[in-house]
Design a protein that fits this description.
alpha/beta, eight-stranded parallel sheet, about 350 residues, about 15% strand, binds 1,3-dihydroxyacetonephosphate, two-stranded antiparallel sheet, TIM Barrel
Amino acid sequence: MTTDTTNLPVLIARARAMVTTGKGLLAIDESNGTCNRRFASAGIAQTIEMRRDWRALLLSTPGLSRCISGVILYDETIRQTAADGQPLTQLAHDAGLLIGIKVDTGAKPLAAHPGETVTEGLDGLRERLQSYSGMGAGFAKWRAVFAVDDRHLPTRACIAANAQALARYAVLCQEAGLVPIVEPEILMDGPHTQARCEDVTEAVLHSVFDQLVLHGAALEALILKPSMVLAGQASTARNTAAEVAEATLQCLRRTVPAAVPGIMFLSGGQSAEQASAGLNAINLSGEQPWPLSFSFGRALQYPALQIWAGQAANRIAAQDAVMHRARCNSAALTGAYGAAMETV
Ligand code: 13P
């Protein structure tokens, strides 16, 4: 069984536009809880107005669309208007950015599997996708999360449950005329080795593509958003960008069909510079079956958020910082990123 093909040419063209040369995605789809935690650590008030102002600041960064093809919004944001009354979707549209929407309802504890989660949100998803499409969304995102330890995690149950949910989400998106971003994130916390991360990433991606095929997803009309393959943050090992590139590409080549139009990495808690360096090394590693780009949240936003600190007077400096990271990551798509870009 395959998906209805009526929407396919449009979806394929849109997926390609998302990974068009020199561009990536800006993820600003943090749930209110996650956004508030990040605001709290930057000393910013955790209010609906501050979340609105931060997202409006990002969306109106001058020149953003030179490096960014689209933005991923959260439910609150896609319905929100800026302080001057303009809908935030209008800001994105005027900036020439494709609009995406996070549609999962979060990672919830997986019964009988301590320490693991399954991402929920399938109930009512068909109707929600229709409504987001009516609000201007052209693509969607669903994030599954996998905790890693040295032996047991992730369990086969956790991999199977999340892979099936990702596949069911993906076909519902394609049916509704939205390009699905399929995001299986291998968490960076923990003391695991890079080799363990590689094994886990490979097992997860095998299962995800197995389920996508089983459920009839059109591989040509989706984007994969994986994590880079690296040692856990609590391990003493630190991988070079070249090591990250080698392990990540080996894993992707073994698991991701060439029909997939693009791979757009999450940053996952790497520093902004590390994420750019990893992406750069990946793109310096010779020709691959797919364009390899970015769909970063923290690695695009974090330096700018510290500068903004919730103060209107810092708005332009914060936009400069966002644009700087966008330029660095755009350069990384051609292997042109380097330390010299960080000193100007
Ligand atoms: P990070 O780049 O901060 O990992 O966020 C990307 C994202 O969309 C997480 O779901």
